Amino acid sequence: MIPGPTPVPEKVLQALGRHPIGHRTKEFQELVESTTKNLQWLHQTQNDVLTITGSGTAAMEAGIVSTLSRGDKVICGENGKFGERWVKVAKEFGLEVIEIHSEWGTPLNPEEFKKILEEDKKKEIKAVILTHSETSTGVINDLKTISSYIRKHNIALSIIDCVTSLGACNVPVDEWQLDIVASGSQKGYMIPPGLSFIAISQKAWKAAEKSNLPKFYLNLKSYKKSLLSNSNPYTPAVNLVFALDEALKMMREEGLENIFLRHNKHKLAMSQAVKALNLKLFADEKFLSPSITAINTETMDAEEFRKTIKNNFDILLAGGQDHLKGKIFRVGHLGYVNDRDIITVISAISKTLLDLGKITTKEAGEALLVASKNLK
């Protein structure tokens, strides 16, 4: 019950266990063609969706280095560990970074993006980089509104980390005219780590023609060229593509709306149970991610609490990062997670709190009751 790697369905594991095939064969090209079409369906786009053997960070770095140039001015939104990472990556490549901050646990303010973009009369800002679902804090940012302000600027690209939102909530790439959307296999895709995905608009491809940042393995032009023949510029993780094919078929069978509804009800069940257990949500309740719930422990050491649950119930929860270590724990509920999993983790948290004398049996029962109501 962490936000990645997430549980892997049996069908996907079986696909993963197939004997590898040559990545230049007709059989593999047919597989690439099939997965690409299903990736476009998942992203709700007609744009190119490329598959890279690497983590979500690889996809984000690829998006940055393939479309921008040294000295370009960019806006980076930072309200958690991953927003912070994109600031570091941008600075590492010599970009001029305008930082928009929000306290960890609170969403980015769209109006701050609007103000800076509207004041850029010379159109010097070349990109806006931000995280949609901030995994470190359980906050989802208002991408729809922020992207509308980016579009009005006309020049700036939107480079979006959708690692824990793609496949968990609605990210209509074409409707919102998002330029670069990065995600990773070990999250909503329900397969092991090792693949990342990047959707790219025509506007972003035009920007790529002028990019002068250093790149080789992560040069997206190479991937686009290979995709024309349903191939890959380098040796891909063949067995992970087998797994991807099976996972995407499962997702299509469930349907986008049902996937989004399932993640939303799990979010509501967890958040309402947390309140019933006299714990505090770390993030503002209006901006909770459908993928992960961060819980403030206050009077308890969160690391000891996680350790107890792992020892007693063999359930792994995520801890806090950086200055939040020991202060919060996080429950992942994205990907291959069902109602039983939600009830099980709430029961384990409740029993542990009971043993510590933090709650009564009545409160433990109330938590399960409110969770169950939200799972209907």
Keywords:
L-serine-glyoxylate transaminase activity; alpha/beta; 7-stranded mixed sheet; pyridoxal phosphate; 4-stranded antiparallel sheet; 376 residues; 44% helix; Aspartate Aminotransferase, domain 2; Aspartate Aminotransferase, domain 1
Based on the structure, what is the oligomeric state of the protein chains? single chain
CATH superfamily of the largest domain: Type I PLP-dependent aspartate aminotransferase-like (Major domain)
Average pLDDT metric = 97
Q: Which structural class do the helices and strands define?
A: alpha/beta
Number of helices: 13
Q: What count of structural domains?
A: 2
Helix content: 40-55%
The CATH architecture of the largest domain can be named as 3-Layer(aba) Sandwich
Radius of gyration: 21 Å
Order of helices and strands: HHEHEHEHEEEHEEEHHHHEEHEEHH
Tell me what portion of residues adopts beta-strand conformation: 15-25%
Fold and architecture overview:
The chain has 13 helices and 13 strands. It has 376 residues and is α/β, with parallel strands linked by helices. The protein folds into 2 domains: 245 residues, Aspartate Aminotransferase, domain 2, CATH 3.40.640; 119 residues, Aspartate Aminotransferase, domain 1 (Alpha-Beta Complex). The protein is globular, with a radius of gyration of 21 Å. The mean pLDDT is 97.
